C-alpha cells in the first residue's frame, strides 16, 4: 500500500499571499497524483490530476508540480474561498487507492 | 448536469448492516466506475472500493474486504454500498464518486450519507 504524507498538517496564510502544500509518497507514483479541496459539510472537489493538470473550471491560481515521490500544490493570490482542507490522492498502484491525511489551510 | 444523489442519514446499532444508494444522472452510467469513500468525523478520506457498472466487477480495500459489498443497477443507474457488522468506528459520512476507467480520479461526487452507529 502506498502511503501519502502531507505537510504541514495546518498552514496559516494571509489572503493575497501564496500557499505551498506538500505531499510525499512512500514509493513512486510516477505522475499519478491528484489534489482535492474540501470545505466543511461539502464533498471534496477535484482540483488537479496527473500531478499538474487542472480539472475543468479550476482557476489558474491553483497549480501542481512534482513527479515520483514529491509533489506540491501551490495556491497563488489566496482568496477567502480557498481556505479549506486539501488532500492528495495516488492512483498509480491500487487497490487500494490512497489519500494523504490532509492539510488544513487557515486564514491568518 | 452531472448529479450523484445519495440516500439519507441512517442510525444503526452495532452489528447491524447499512445499505446506502447513489443515483447517477447526467452521464452514461456504464462509462464510469463508481467508488465509495469513507470519512469519519473530523478525519480524512479512505477509499473503500469500486464497482464497474458495465460488468459488475468490484475491487475492495483490504480493510473492508468481507464486510463491504458494492453493486450497480444499470436499470436505474444506481450504485449501492452495503456495510455489515457495523461498529462505532464505522460512524462516518460515506461518499460515492465517479472515475473514468484507467484514470482513477474522482471527478464527480455525491453529497454524502451520514451513518451513525450507536447502541
3D architecture notes:
The complex is a heterodimer of chains A (108) and B (119). With 108 residues, chain A is mostly beta strands. Helix content of chain A is 0%, strand content 49%. Chain A has no helices and eleven strands. In chain A, strands 2, 4, 5, 6, 9, 10 and 11 form a seven-stranded mixed beta sheet that branches. Chain A has a four-stranded antiparallel beta sheet with strand order 1-3-8-7, with no helix packed on it. The N and C termini of chain A lie far apart (36 Å). Helix content of chain B is 0%, strand content 55%. By secondary structure, chain B is mainly β. Chain B is built from no helices and eleven strands. Chain B has strands spanning 3-6, 10-12, 18-25, 32-39, 46-51, 58-60, 68-73, 78-83, 92-100, 103-109, 113-117. At the A-B interface, strand 4, strand 5 and strand 10 of A face strand 5 and strand 10 of B.
Summary keywords:
heterodimer; A: 108 residues; mainly beta; 4-stranded antiparallel sheet; 0% helix; 49% strand; globular; B: 119 residues; 7-stranded mixed sheet; 11 strands; 55% strand
Determine the fraction of residues in helical runs of chain B and give it as a percent range: under 10%
Tell me, rounded to a whole number, the average pLDDT of chain B.
97
- How many helical elements of chain A? 0
Radius of gyration of chain B: 13 Å
The amount of helix of chain A comes to: under 10%
Measured by DSSP, the beta-strand proportion of chain A falls in: over 45%
What structural class do helix, strand and pairing data of chain A support? mainly beta
Radius of gyration of chain A: 13 Å
- Assembly category: heterodimer
Number of extended strands of chain A:
11
Order of helices and strands of chain A: EEEEEEEEEEE
- The helix/strand order of chain B is EEEEEEEEEEE
Low-confidence stretches of chain B: none
Amino acid at each position: 500500500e502506498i502511503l501519502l504524507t502531507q505537510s504541514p498538517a495546518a498552514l496559516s496564510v494571509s489572503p493575497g499571499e501564496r500557499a505551498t502544500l506538500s505531499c510525499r509518497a512512500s514509493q513512486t507514483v510516477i505522475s499519478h497524483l491528484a489534489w482535492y479541496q474540501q470545505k466543511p459539510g461539502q464533498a471534496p472537489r477535484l482540483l488537479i490530476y496527473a500531478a499538474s493538470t487542472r480539472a475543468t473550471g479550476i482557476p489558474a491560481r491553483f497549480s501542481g508540480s512534482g513527479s515520483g515521490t514529491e509533489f506540491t500544490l501551490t495556491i497563488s493570490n489566496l482568496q477567502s474561498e480557498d481556505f479549506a482542507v486539501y488532500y492528495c490522492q495516488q492512483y498509480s498502484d491500487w487497490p487500494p487507492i490512497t489519500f494523504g491525511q490532509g492539510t488544513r489551510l487557515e486564514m491568518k | 448536469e452531472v448529479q450523484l444523489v445519495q440516500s439519507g442519514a441512517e442510525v444503526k446499532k452495532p452489528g447491524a448492516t447499512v445499505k446506502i444508494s447513489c443515483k447517477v444522472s447526467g452521464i452514461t452510467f456504464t462509462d464510469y466506475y463508481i467508488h465509495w469513500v469513507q470519512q469519519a468525523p473530523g478525519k480524512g478520506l479512505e477509499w473503500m472500493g469500486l464497482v464497474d457498472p458495465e460488468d459488475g466487477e468490484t475491487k475492495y480495500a483490504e480493510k473492508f474486504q468481507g464486510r463491504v459489498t458494492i453493486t450497480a443497477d444499470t436499470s436505474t443507474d444506481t450504485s449501492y454500498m452495503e456495510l455489515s457488522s457495523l461498529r462505532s468506528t464505522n460512524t462516518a459520512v460515506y461518499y460515492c464518486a465517479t472515475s473514468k476507467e484507467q484514470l482513477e480520479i474522482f471527478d464527480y461526487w455525491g453529497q454524502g450519507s451520514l451513518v451513525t452507529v450507536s447502541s
